[in-house]
Design brief:
The complex is a heterodimer of chains A (about 425) and B (about 425).
Chain A: E1 19-22, E2 28-33, E3 39-46, H1 60-67, H2 77-85, E4 90-95, E5 100-107, H3 111-123, H4 129-147, H5 150-162, H6 176-181, H7 184-194, E6 201-206, H8 210-221, E7 245-250, E8 257-265, H9 273-284, H10 286-299, E9 303-311, E10 317-325, H11 330-347, H12 351-363, H13 365-368, H14 372-384, H15 391-400, H16 404-414, E11 421-426
Helix pairs in contact in A: 1-7, 3-8, 9-10, 9-12, 9-16, 10-11, 12-15
Chain B: E1 5-9, E2 15-20, E3 26-33, H1 47-54, H2 67-73, E4 77-82, E5 87-94, H3 98-108, H4 116-134, H5 137-149, H6 163-168, H7 171-181, E6 187-193, H8 197-208, E7 231-237, E8 243-250, H9 256-269, H10 288-294, E9 299-306, E10 313-321, H11 327-343, H12 348-365, H13 369-382, H14 385-389, H15 391-396, H16 400-410, E11 416-423
Parallel strand pairs in B: 2-6, 7-11
Antiparallel strand pairs in B: 1-2, 3-5, 3-6, 4-5, 8-10, 8-11, 9-10
The chains are: A alpha+beta (about 425), B alpha+beta (about 425).
Chain lengths: ~425, ~425
């Protein structure tokens, strides 16, 4: 059908409509207006993640981030959430490896409320004893549930193999014994030392006027200072695997085993990323899980889910195949996947496969950027990985300039079928 | 969400609902069939879901593995869902590519192959899907509670079906199910996005109107008799975590009590987000049950779900028990709160807060064209689209007296199943 396209010209985010402001204290603000939405979404991060955790108190950064909303010098836990929930707004903060990330949503008129609460929890948390203990019980229950989750445990075990000796091998939500070892004073101290404006990024989109938002953010956050805020620790190098390493996590009573199999991958801002990402699309994403989905699910009927992913961030990433299979089919599935990887490395991908994935990457942009949440994620990607304000406008060209040789080169650089990390969790 | 909706009925009985939205160059198309696990007799449980899987396995025009690539190549997103009452197929595409989705849906409404080899391969895929579900304590508990709650009504089995039937159903069973229910007069097509209604309707007529109507079998009607009293079940499993699921027999979505229960749900456990896409809700930390259970350190999480169904289904309250507490302590505290909502009249201000929350969740949902398209047909599966249009208005009219009356009738212990997932060797 020759559908008549009636929309106003729909531009990809770029320097014309993204406002980027650096406050005097080091906070970066990115905004983009979306007049067709009645709501507003905020999201961002501060550089105080699990990299700062002492080994014996692993999970401290996450615990601290989660505890910020448990009470401030102005409001109790119930008062904070009453202000939010009475207006159907939401605000949450949690810890990651590099950063503590926050996100919130409200009707547009409630943006001042969101920013007010965000400033309050960041500047004046009081970590009430009883709330800290409630939170600890919740975290410990979460870890008990994690220990019974085959996908989570396969993924955790995979990271331990591939990132051995590197902080990425450690779970940012810690272990039961490290969560028990953390006391209230640790939270107070972690907050006092690490929370500050330097390196904080805040992205806001929705029914907003960027200038008004900038004034509001300046008013709320412009005076924040923390002279003792440390620089983020440097990442150590990664020791590549010298041989295939396989580990099994036994979880009794499960009907299905989860497999995580793969190698380390490029960083997000490496020039290797785009060709590796398109290669991954052909290997285990495109359509119903690319070649991996085809061989494991479609042709062999072994799994409901089988795919590969390339997770790339500030440090080394992971290129990993995941599948959930009957425990009796684990070895058969691993053999099939390794064979598929070998074939991928031998012959690369066809011009048609590459064109398919390129077309998908460019074609899906309108859907990715339809919502305020999608735009905010794009703004944060731009800032976190220093991609440039015009990244999404250059994106189609970046995708199209990749050729089959580049994909093959990256596959051979990162995927090593004789040096795989293989983690299996199941009965 | 109240832009003009246009309704059309094709000669073959296909109902078409169209809504122009011009905020992004996208179109989302949803094809709904009035068939789900409610239409499955013993021996055929899971057949609707399996048929949904087979709908991705090709037609002569679009062979298997061509469809998914064609959609992905155009940057689209597609999926399908089988539920108690319905089966739905969706595609959200760049606006100038929607024709592919329309041609595909018209084609697989009548021409799917159900190749014997594909049936065999998909049998093990679905068994694997079920095994993945069985890994989750909450699936195991939920399935047991549902079976206990419905002795007669076909809502008694999970959508994925029982393993015994998944092992024995034949290609012929699947194909017959498909031919019986996949006819235009049993379907609703809902499309929202960046198109001109006149152009879109013409194309739909070209693609769908030649498909013949069929004799759709009457839906399986086996009303559940009123429960004689509370049922309690215990499921044992591995792990360290105890879960409690308390499920009350709840009104169908079209029942006036449904909207009153929506208010009750919001007060007890925070507002349920009925949007399937592009939602984003609010937390529930000021809800009555959170205050009574989490703040009092009896549980570490609380949630509840109200489900829009054609027939009376369940209102589920789910609690994760605090590691130092027992299921019994949690149930006692829950009963205090349920007694309170039955006996003490809620304030108008509490209802007004619930209405404001629902209004905001609707506004958040309107950001997504996929979500707006979803509602066009979804509401038709248990009521009519008018149900969705009048939802906020009806919610705003709920009174404190109605809340109390509904709580007294619906939230009686006699109307519930209590399920406990207990770690083997755990608390008694």
């Amino acid at each position: 059908m020759k559908a008549q396209i009636l929309s106003a010209p729909h531009s990809l985010p770029g320097p014309e409509d993204i406002t980027r402001i650096r406050l005097g204290n080091g906070i970066t603000l990115l905004t983009r207006a979306n007049d067709s939405s009645p709501s507003v979404v905020i999201s961002g991060y501060l550089p105080c993640g699990a990299l700062f955790d002492p080994q014996e108190k692993l999970g401290l950064a996450d615990f601290t981030a989660l505890a910020l909303m448990r009470g401030t010098s102005q409001r109790s836990f119930q008062q904070i959430f009453d202000a939010l929930e009475s207006n159907a707004a939401s605000l949450a903060i949690g810890g990651g490896t590099h950063t503590a990330g926050f996100s919130g949503r409200a009707l547009a008129e409630d943006l001042p409320l969101l920013l007010d609460l965000l400033a309050e929890i960041l500047f004046q948390p009081v970590f009430p004893d009883d709330e800290v203990e409630r939170l600890r019980a919740q975290l410990l229950t979460g870890l008990s549930i994690r220990a019974q989750d085959t996908a989570d445990m396969a993924s955790l075990s995979f990271d331990q193999i591939i990132f051995d000796g590197h902080p990425y091998a450690l779970p940012e939500d810690g272990w039961p014994e490290t969560i028990r070892a953390i006391c209230r004073a640790d939270l107070v101290d972690f907050h006092a030392r690490h929370y500050g404006p330097s390196g904080m990024v805040l992205a806001i989109t929705g029914a907003i006027e960027p200038q008004k938002v900038a004034a509001l953010v300046e008013k709320q956050f412009g005076d924040w200072k923390n002279p003792q805020q440390p620089e983020p620790p440097a990442l150590p190098g990664l020791h590549p695997l010298q041989e295939t390493t396989r580990r099994k996590v036994s979880i009794a009573g499960k009907a299905q085993s989860d497999i995580a199999l793969g190698c380390s991958g490029p960083t997000r801002n490496s020039p290797d990323f785009m060709p590796a990402s398109l290669g991954n699309s052909a290997l285990g994403q495109f359509g119903m899980g690319g070649r991996i989905g085809d061989v494991v699910r479609e042709r062999s009927g072994l799994a409901y889910y089988a795919s590969s992913s390339l997770s790339a961030g500030i440090g080394p990433g992971a290129w990993v195949v995941n599948a959930g299979v009957n425990p009796g089919n684990v070895d058969k599935t691993i053999d099939l996947v390794v064979r598929e990887i070998r074939q991928f490395l031998e012959k690369g991908i066809s011009a048609e496969e590459l064109a398919d994935s390129q077309s998908n990457y460019v074609g899906r942009l309108p859907l990715m950027l339809e919502s305020n949440g999608g735009v905010v994620n794009a703004l944060l990607n731009i800032e976190r990985y220093q991609l440039g304000l015009d990244y999404y406008q250059r994106y189609p060209a970046l995708v199209q300039e990749v050729n089959c040789e580049m994909v093959l080169e990256m596959a051979r650089k990162y995927l090593h079928p004789d040096k795989l990390a293989i983690a299996v969790a199941g009965p | 969400m109240r832009k003009k909706i246009q309704e059309f009925n094709l000669h073959n009985g296909l109902k078409v609902l169209l809504k122009e939205i011009h905020t992004a160059p996208l179109i989302s198309s949803w094809t709904w069939y009035r068939v789900g696990s409610k239409d499955e007799a013993t021996g055929n449980t899971g057949i609707s879901h399996w048929v949904e899987h087979m709908q991705f396995k090709g037609t002569p025009q679009f062979p298997a593995n061509i469809l998914d690539k064609a959609i992905a190549r155009d940057g689209g997103h597609w999926n399908a869902f089988t539920f108690l009452d319905w089966t739905a197929y969706m595609e959200t595409m760049p606006a100038d590519k929607i024709d592919l989705a329309l041609r595909l849906e018209a084609d697989r409404m009548a021409n799917s192959l159900f190749d014997e080899k594909e049936v065999a391969s998909e049998r093990t895929v679905i068994i694997s899907e079920r095994e993945g579900n069985e890994n989750e304590p909450l699936f195991v508990l939920g399935e047991s509670v549902q079976q206990a709650a419905f002795r007669v009504h076909p809502y008694h089995h999970e959508v994925i079906g029982d393993l015994a039937d998944l092992k024995t159903m034949s290609r012929e069973d699947l194909y017959q199910h498909y031919r019986r229910y996949y006819v235009p007069n049993n379907a609703v097509l809902g499309i929202a996005g960046d198109f001109e209604t006149k152009v879109m309707l013409k194309r739909i007529q070209e693609l769908f109107e030649h498909l013949p109507a069929g004799d759709v079998p009457p839906r399986l009607e086996r009303p559940e008799p009123e429960a004689n009293g509370e049922q309690r079940i215990t499921v044992e499993g591995h792990g360290e975590t105890t879960y409690v699921q308390v499920s009350y027999h709840a009104p169908a979505a079209s029942d006036p009590d449904f909207i009153t229960l929506t208010v009750i749900d919001s007060l007890l456990a925070g507002p349920s987000n009925l949007n399937m896409f592009g939602g984003g809700g609010t937390s529930n930390k000021t809800s009555r049950l959170y205050c009574a259970m989490i703040d009092k350190e009896l549980a570490v999480s609380i949630g509840a779900s109200q489900v829009t169904t054609h027939d009376p289904f369940l209102y589920n309250i789910l609690l994760t028990v605090h590691p130092d507490r027992t299921a019994g302590e949690v149930l006692d505290a829950l009963d205090v709160e349920l007694h309170r909502i039955r006996e003490e009249r809620v304030s108008g201000a509490e209802i007004a807060r619930a209405v404001k929350q629902a209004r905001a969740l609707f506004a958040y949902g309107s950001e997504s064209i996929t979500n707006q398209a979803f509602w066009l047909g979804h509401a038709e599966m248990f009521a009519t689209y008018q149900w969705f249009l009048s939802y906020l208005e009806r919610l705003a009219k709920v009174t404190p007296a109605q809340v109390q009356d509904a709580a007294q009738r619906l939230l009686r212990p006699q109307c519930r199943v209590v399920g406990i997932y207990r770690p083997a060797g755990g608390d008694q």
